[in-house]
Design goal:
By secondary structure, this protein is mostly beta strands. The chain folds into two domains: 213 residues, Jelly Rolls, CATH 2.60.120.10; 100 residues, Jelly Rolls (Sandwich). The chain contains five helices and 22 strands. It has a seven-stranded antiparallel sheet with strand order 1-20-17-22-15-14-13, with no helix packed on it. The protein has a six-stranded antiparallel sheet with strand order 2-3-4-11-6-9, with no helix packed on it. Strands 16-21-18-19 form a four-stranded antiparallel sheet, with no helix packed on it. Strand 18 and strand 19 form a beta hairpin. The longest helix is centred in the N-terminal third of the chain and has 13 residues. The C terminus is likely disordered.
Length: 333
């Protein structure tokens, strides 16, 4: 039985808008190009990137190969997605410049376009320069036609909604949401396993393909994205537990401590991904102790029970879990 945490080698992704801030999370960045993303856990469709286990007896094996032999141990009652992949993609993003204004398709659009996959995501702000913004959703009354007019006039932000990028805030971005991460923001991202992205505008940058027609077809002009709200928190044994978001595809919780504390992970029927976003922590299990330092990510298989997280003072950990609704994804795709 596979009942030990799995750690992975980060997949570093160069981006024109990337920078060097991922070094603060312990990433070893190349010196000759800007890095925008660190894919902490990935199992992409087709021949896309797949994470490689970095330590322990399975070091050197890909997540995909281990799922082939230990699916029940890792996934429990949660299925793989329709492509036979782990259903979540976990990242850190460093926006040294504005990301393109973009949108991801919903299930209906993906079903009717070969090679496209639903993409829904959420961001937790880890660092933000003063005055930095996140764009999410369109102004009320905006249509595909009025957005095209704004594009033609070079005034797209006039029809977008913006919000401050506040430290610790969580931003749920369902598929169909026109959005952009603003300059100076560092986030942890949890999303469905998809890289289907349509760029509608790139702030005047050239050299990257735009997908205006597909974007206008995918943007939800009627449903605003969830507003940022004060998440409910529960404190016990020195740990404050905050539910950040619950989506049809995954949930995200955050653990915060002011002083050293230990938090027992409730019994689970599926996998849990733990990301340390501040301070230092350790996973305590019957199989031993696994470090969880700032900027690191571990996958806790469903077979791991009687597990706790030992957190130092001033430490924060994000826990992400695919939801039972992920079962529907197999039927919809």
């Amino acid at each position: 039985m596979l009942d030990t945490p799995l750690t992975f080698t980060p997949i570093l992704v160069p981006k024109v808008w990337g920078g060097r801030r991922l070094e603060k999370l312990g990433k070893q960045l190349p010196s000759d190009e800007p890095i925008g993303e660190s894919w902490e856990l990935a199992d992409m469709p087709g021949n896309g990137p797949c994470s490689v286990i970095s330590s322990g007896p399975l070091a050197g094996h890909t997540l995909r190969s281990v799922l082939d032999t230990h699916q029940q141990d890792i996934m429990g009652t949660v299925p793989l997605n329709a492509q036979g992949r782990f259903p979540l993609l976990i990242k850190f993003l460093d926006a040294c410049e504005n990301l393109s204004v973009q949108v991801h398709p919903d299930q209906a659009w993906a079903d009717s376009h070969e090679g496209a996959y639903l993409k829904s995501e959420a961001w937790v702000v880890l660092d933000a320069d003063p005055g930095s913004l996140i764009w999410a959703g369109v102004q009320p009354g905006t249509t595909a036609e009025s957005m095209q007019v704004a594009l033609d006039a070079g005034r797209l932000t006039d029809v977008l909604q913006s919000r401050p990028a506040q430290l610790g805030s969580c931003h749920d971005l369902p598929s169909g949401t026109c959005h952009a991460l603003g300059k100076g923001v560092l986030v942890a991202e949890v999303q469905t396993t998809s890289d289907t992205t349509f760029r509608v505008w790139d702030w005047g940058r050239t050299g990257r393909t735009m997908h205006v027609a597909a974007s206008l077809a995918c943007i939800d002009f009627t449903t605003p994205p969830p507003a940022e709200v004060a998440a409910p928190s529960v404190s016990a044994s020195g740990v404050t537990e905050t539910m950040l978001t619950t989506t049809p595809w995954f949930t995200m919780r955050r653990l915060d401590t002011a002083s050293p504390s230990t938090w027992r992970i409730p019994d689970r029927t599926g996998p849990t991904v733990a990301m340390c976003i501040r301070g230092d922590a350790r996973i305590l299990a019957t199989s031993g102790t696994t470090p969880l330092g700032m900027g690191s990510t571990v996958l806790l298989p469903a077979a791991m029970q009687d597990t706790s997280i030992e957190l130092d003072g001033q430490t924060a950990v994000v826990l992400a879990e695919p939801t039972a609704s992920a079962i529907d994804q197999n039927e919809l795709q």
